[in-house]
Structure formats: C-alpha cells, structure tokens
From TrEMBL:
Cofactor(s) this protein requires: heme
Keywords of the record: Heme, Iron, Metal-binding, Monooxygenase, Oxidoreductase
Cited PROSITE patterns: CYTOCHROME_P450
Family note: Belongs to the cytochrome P450 family.
Listed Gene3D superfamilies: Cytochrome P450
Protein name: Cytochrome P450
Pfam family, one: p450
Molecular function GO terms recorded: heme binding; iron ion binding; monooxygenase activity; oxidoreductase activity, acting on paired donors, with incorporation or reduction of molecular oxygen
Top-rank lineage group of the source organism: Eukaryota
Keyword Plastid: no
Binding residues annotated for heme, in chain numbering: C439
The keyword GTP-binding belongs to this UniProt entry's keyword annotation: no
Length: 498
C-alpha cells in the first residue's frame, strides 16, 4: 500500500518544525541585520556586500551600535562609533583575537602560511628594534627614495604621462622598505624585488580564490595553491647564503656577537633561532612582513598621489613647507615631524578614500558581551565600520568635503599638536586600528610615505591626465582599490637647493 502525499507533507512539516524547536538559540539572531536574514536570501546580501560594502556599513552605522551582515560563508558583526570602537579594541585577548581574524580574512593558512610563534616574530621585530631605531634608519630611507624615484619617474622637463601607477609605486616602495629589511644592494636587485612584489599580488589572488570556494572545499583545495611554496623556494635560493651565515654567527657567538648585522632580516633570524624554528619559517616570515608592509603602503601612496595630481593647487604650499622643514632639520625624523601640511594631506586622503572600509578586525574565541547587552558567540568575525566612522558628521565637520589641511587646523589648537597626526590612535580615527594591537609599523610607513611624496613634490609638477577628473576607485567587499587605468602627468622641475 502506497503512502499518501498528505502524510508525507505532514511528516516533513512536523520534522521541520521539530528541528527548529530543538535548535539551541543563537545569539546572532538577536543582532540587527543589514540586508536579508532569511536563508538563501542572505546570498543576495552577500552579492551586495561584494559591490557595496560601504553602503551597507553606512546604513548599519546610522541605525545600530552593533549589527550584522551576511557574506558568502558567514555572518560578520560590526560596531558603530567611537565608543564601540574603543570597547572592541579593549576586549581581552582570550575573548577576541586579532591574529585569528587576520588568518580568516586573508585566508592565511593557504596564502601566507601558518604562524607557529605567538606573538609573531615579525610583529615583535617591528614593535621592538625597528621602532627604537627609526630615527637612525631615516637616512637610509631617504637615500633609497631618491634612487627609486630617479629610476621610476621621467627625467624630462616637459610633461610625460605615466600609467599603472599602483605598480610603479609598489616597485619604488619595495626597494625602500627592503633597504631596511635586507639592506643594499640586495634591495635593488630586480630578481629579488620581483619575488616580494609578485608575492604581494599572489596573496590577494589566493585570498580571492579561497573566498569564492565553499568552506568545506578549502582544506582540500587550499594546500594546492602554488604561490606561497614558489615564493619560499625563490626566497631561499636568493637569501639562503645570507641566512645561513647569520645562523652560523648566532650558533658560534650567541646574540651578542661583535659586528652582528642590524637589520630586519637579522631580527627575524634571531627570533627564529630563539624559538628554535627551522629556516623555511624565516623565509615565510620575511615574505609575510613584506606583504603586510607593501600592500598597505603602496595602496595608500597611490591614493595620495592621485589626490595630489587631482589638486595641483596644493603642491606649492606643500613644497614650501617641505623646503622649510628640510632647511631647518635636514632629511631627518625631526624634519618630517614638522611637515604638518603633508601629514594632514596624507591623513585626509586616507579618511576620504582609504584602502579598506573596516578596521579593528577581531574573531571571537569565547562569547563576547558588549556593554549594551549584545552577545556575540565564539567563532564570529567582528570589525569596526571605519569608513562610516571617518564620514561621521558629528566627528568631522563637513565630512563629505575633502579638506587637505583639515588636521593642521585641529593641531593648531592648544594641547592638540600631536593628537591629530596621521599615526595617532583615537576612537574616531581607526585607519591604523586602536589600542595595544594597532599597526606597529605605522611610524615607519608614515616616514616612508612622507619621504617619497616630499621627493616627488620637490622634483616634479604633477597633474591628472585625461579630462582632469580623479579616477574612481574599485571596491571589492571591504577592500578599496585605486584605479589601475589612471593617467598621471609628471614634469621634472629644475634643480632646487635642498
């Protein structure tokens, strides 16, 4: 005897209701949603998230202190405003993790490699010896900036159009950063620079591939990505003798040997030696550090250069300030600290355009509870709505208007001279994060960008090509990507007394 369709419908319906009745309540369900909450419809929200993350975050920021948005494979929770930014930044490390968030967001297990040391060796090196020695390494930064600009930019005293500026600046910055990371002449070798710049691009390529894969397929297909293994192999071939020599020195003389090299690679080698980690990890760590430094600084620098070319009327006041600062203090950290207008121009560009629409990325390790009662369960990615914060009219007057010297005016108020610098950390300025896990390399990045911009401003007249409009950015989920198609014109100036 057959089973009636009515009975099948009844059993299916009862099973469906019983399943939902037995489910443990998920705290995420009580968090307000931007977009759709219903199953399957969340994929429509995920599509919008890819192309309009800023719009969704702006909507959530205007309505809620804490809200959630669906991406392809998970819910993400976001906080709004300075108070919640500060609260998120102060959550204990055993409750939320910045490293676990970074691992998830960049698919680091497959793109960068797993990090067996906590805190990461490269972070310790940046926090410690690099920051302590920053004033001493400024002359090396400046020297390499001069060489890289002369190599990459036209030397004619007539207008010359350049394209693919993100790639040009990536090459320049790779040489300058690696002057500090590994020293000269290796930092100028085309083969070496190709390894680190290709790896920077390949990590983002790998992240995109992994993001598009279903979560269950990632452990299967992720290890097949070839780029990290290839980069480590090439780096080992290129730096193997240098690393071996430094390891031998540590083994024979210990950490205090006479004439021990004093650069970033040495700090990484010594950190790995102390942690008893094998050599492959040294190359992987060195690549990780290059990726983190190159990606942030090259994208940020591209945004600033486009804005400078779009507003050529700003060049002369910046030029005068730079020349005055150099005349007083030379090309030193003190001299760069006096370039308030240049600092403001950089910061306002990042406020207005930026390179990401979120900041303060964290992943919950335990249940996290906010002061307003919102509960976020373990295993959830959280972040602050950075771009929405930076466009908050209550925090930034005329926030929708680009004001190149906005922060000079703020710094001129009594007691405010250091609060509004590009590298400053405040709950309403979270480009570099906030609190103890803020970007440790921000001081180095700031000086590098100022040195590179100062050299370009002193040596060149600059303007946007085409119809004179600023090239639009491309947005891909939380990432803001400067246009690759922009045309920028440069004209070499006559020599100046610098």
């Amino acid at each position: 005897m057959g089973i009636s369709p009515q009975l099948l419908y009844f059993v299916a319906g009862f099973s469906f209701l019983y399943y939902f009745a037995q489910r443990r309540p998920n705290p995420l369900h009580s968090i307000p949603t931007i977009g759709f909450s219903a199953p399957f419809l969340t994929y429509l929200s995920a599509v919008r998230w890819l192309v309009d993350a800023q719009g969704m975050l702006q909507e959530g920021y205007a309505k809620h202190k804490v809200f959630k948005i669906a991406s392809w494979d998970r819910w993400m929770v976001f906080v709004s405003g300075p108070d919640m930014n500060e609260e998120l930044s102060k959550m204990p490390d055993d409750v939320v993790s910045i490293q676990a968030a970074a691992t998830d967001l960049i698919q680091a297990k497959y793109t960068l490699g797993e990090n067996p040391v906590e805190p990461p060796i490269e972070i310790a090196a940046i926090h410690g010896p690099m920051t302590r020695n920053l004033s001493a390494i400024v002359p090396d930064i400046v020297e390499e900036v001069v060489l890289s600009v002369e190599k990459a930019f036209p030397q004619k005293q007539e207008w010359v159009e350049m394209t693919r500026m993100p790639e040009v600046l990536l090459q320049c910055i790779a040489c300058v950063e690696n002057r500090i990371f590994i020293g000269a002449p290796i930092c100028r070798e085309p083969e070496y620079i190709k390894i680190v710049t290709d790896f920077t691009v390949d990590v983002m390529k790998g992240k995109l591939v992994m993001d598009l894969l279903p979560m269950r397929l990632r452990p299967i297909l992720g290890p097949l990505l070839p780029w990290r293994r290839k980069a480590i192999r090439l780096m080992k071939k290129h730096l193997g003798p240098v690393v071996a020599e430094r390891q031998k020195g540590l083994q024979e003389h210990g950490a205090q040997w006479d004439n021990k090299p004093d650069d970033f690679l040495m700090w990484i080698v010594e950190g790995a030696w102390n942690a008893k980690i094998d050599s492959d990890f040294i190359y992987q760590t060195f690549l990780m550090a290059n990726f983190a430094a190159l990606r942030t600084s090259s994208l940020s620098m591209t945004q600033v250069l486009y804005q400078l070319a779009y507003l050529p009327e700003c060049i002369q006041p910046l030029r005068e300030e730079i020349m005055n600062a150099v005349a007083e203090d030379g090309w030193t950290r003190a001299g760069f600290n006096k370039m308030w207008k240049l600092d403001s121009f950089i910061k306002e560009t990042q406020r207005y355009y930026g390179i990401a629409v979120i900041s303060l990325r964290r992943k919950t390790l335990k249940t996290a509870t906010f002061s307003n009662g919102v509960v976020v369960p373990p295993g959830v990615l959280m972040a602050a709505a950075a771009a929405a914060t930076h466009f908050d009219e209550g925090l930034y007057k005329d926030a929708a208007i680009f004001k190149p010297f906005r922060f000079v005016e703020k710094r001129e108020a009594d007691g405010e001279s250091t609060k509004h610098q590009f590298v400053s950390l405040t709950p309403d300025w979270i480009f570099f994060g906030l609190g103890k896990h803020a970007c440790p390399g921000r001081f180095f990045v700031s000086i590098l960008m100022k040195a590179l911009l100062a050299k370009i401003i002193l040596d060149y007249d600059v303007k946007i090509g085409g119809d004179g409009s600023r090239p639009p950015n491309m947005s891909l989920a939380t990432t803001v990507i400067p246009s690759l198609k922009a045309r920028v014109l440069f004209r070499k100036r006559q020599s100046y007394d610098g």
